[in-house]
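B., you asked whether I could sanity-check this one before it goes into the benchmark set. Here's the sequence:
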Amino acid sequence: MVEFYLLVAGHCEESWFFDSPLSMKGVRQATDLRSFLAKAEHTTPSEKEIIDLMTGKTKRSSEQDGAGQSSWEDDGSKRRPAAQLCSSNLRRAISTMALGFQDRLDKQMDNDSILILPQLQEISRNPDALSITPPRGEVVPSWIDKEVPGFDYRRIFSTQVDTKLHDGNKPVNTNGLKRMNEFCSIVFEQIEKDSIICGGHSLWFRSFFRTFLPHKFDHISKKKKLVNGGCAAFTLLKIKTESGDKFMIDPKSINIVHGFFG
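And here's what the prediction gave me:
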């Protein structure tokens, strides 16, 4: 079982660019997410846990508070955050994650980085959905990244973006379904943490909900796209069968954390 938190990146209006960068509108949306995380209010223990995971607070092992809930703390680099940040290999998604989670990344906690997964690359053959980041290479900031006030892109891109699993642009012999299944296998088999925060793209996320939610389960995520800068949480389950591993979203676990489907 893995907890997921999905965020959508906004691309540059000039979509004929290869690996289109984050637009200024997308910058505002990522900044809104950052502000939301800095002052988010929660009404239930599950909402508090989601926000704590996103902001990088770490769970004390074998400890509970007086209300019987797991205890969390925010103690800088002394502990590793409980959730892994991940991103598509497209620049607009990486910039969204770096901007939206800059307060968390500024703490420079042990082993806290944005893991680049090409399996999250948008389901499209348009030029703006083709990655220019070389396999296991360093992410090159766009001209827009350089214009964002207070955005420490140099440090984040050079020291807090992990491309060890980035094999380059999606191959021509693959498709969205194959890459979504590969993604599920990676998070269960190659990522140690039980909670994953993914930055990606609205079409990919809608396809993911359509594929892994029960067929007869009616939910807006199957029909509408998550807005740019939006965030939804859910639990992904893995079942072993004779024909191989199968994956399913627990329909009762879906929680719209920020933004909406529309």
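One thing to flag: The CA atoms of residues 10 and 26 lie 5 Å apart. Otherwise nothing jumped out at me.
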